[in-house]
Write a structure and sequence with these properties.
Blueprint (H helix, E strand, L loop, with lengths): L12 E6 L5 E8 L7 E7 L5 E5 L1 E5 L6 E5 L1 H18 L37
Antiparallel strand pairs: 1-2, 2-3, 3-4, 5-6
Length: 128
C-alpha cells in the first residue's frame, strides 16, 4: 500500500493531472491580452516544463449583419486544455524537481584575517 501526501495547490490552479512519475500538469486561467478581454487556459507540466495555451476565442456567423460575432468560449478552452493535459500526463516520464530547501541565514562572519602587504623584492646592485 502506498501513502500519498497531499500538498496545497499553487494559487490559480483550477485542475491537476498526475503524471506517471508523480509530477503534475496544472491548468490555470490567464489573460491573453493586457486589457483582459481575451482569455486562455494554460496547461503546464511541472516535470518537463512543457506548456500549452488554449484560447477561449470563438465565433459564429451573424445573420443580422455581415461577418461573424466573436465571443469568449471558456468551455472550449478548458475542454481542449483538459484533453491535452490528460494525454500529456499519460505519457510524460519527467521527474518533478525536488523542493528547494529554505534559505539558511548567513552566520556571523568571524574576525577578518590579517592582511599581508606585498612588497616587491629589493633589487641588489652589483659592484663590478
Amino acid at each position: 500500500m502506498t501513502t500519498q501526501t497531499t500538498t496545497a495547490w499553487p494559487e490559480g490552479v483550477i485542475a491537476r493531472y498526475l503524471t506517471v512519475v508523480d509530477a503534475t500538469v496544472d491548468l490555470t486561467h490567464e489573460d491573453e491580452t493586457s486589457d483582459g478581454k481575451k482569455k486562455t487556459t494554460r496547461a503546464t507540466c511541472t516535470g518537463c516544463k512543457t506548456s500549452t495555451t488554449h484560447t477561449w476565442a470563438d465565433s459564429y456567423p451573424s445573420y443580422s449583419r455581415p461577418g461573424v460575432t466573436e465571443f469568449q468560449n471558456r468551455d472550449q478552452g478548458d475542454r481542449n486544455a483538459r484533453d491535452w493535459a490528460q494525454k500529456h500526463a499519460d505519457t510524460c516520464r519527467a521527474l518533478p524537481r525536488p523542493p528547494t530547501p529554505a534559505a539558511q541565514p548567513n552566520a556571523e562572519p568571524g574576525p577578518e584575517p590579517k592582511r599581508r602587504f606585498w612588497l616587491p623584492a629589493r633589487r641588489t646592485t652589483r659592484t663590478v
